[in-house]
Amino acid sequence: MAPNRKPNLTGFSPRALAAAAGKTQGDPWQRYEAWRYTGPFTRWNRFKSAFPGLGIATVAFAGYLVYEQMFLKDSHAHHEEGGH
Fold it and tell me: Three-class SS of residue 40?
């Protein structure tokens, strides 16, 4: 037989909280760590922000290489000099 309990003045029920929380999956901190891998912290977003100017720099460098090959010809012709 359960003893008579005083009514809870705050209205908080630990049993109701435990029932609403459901089963734990073994790791009590999993819910608190989940934010690290969602939204702006996904693996792809973290990779993108690791090298912020890499995409623009790669395109600019490739454009310069094309420009150099097409328009900047070597004006110093290497002629073999006799005797050496």
Answer: helix
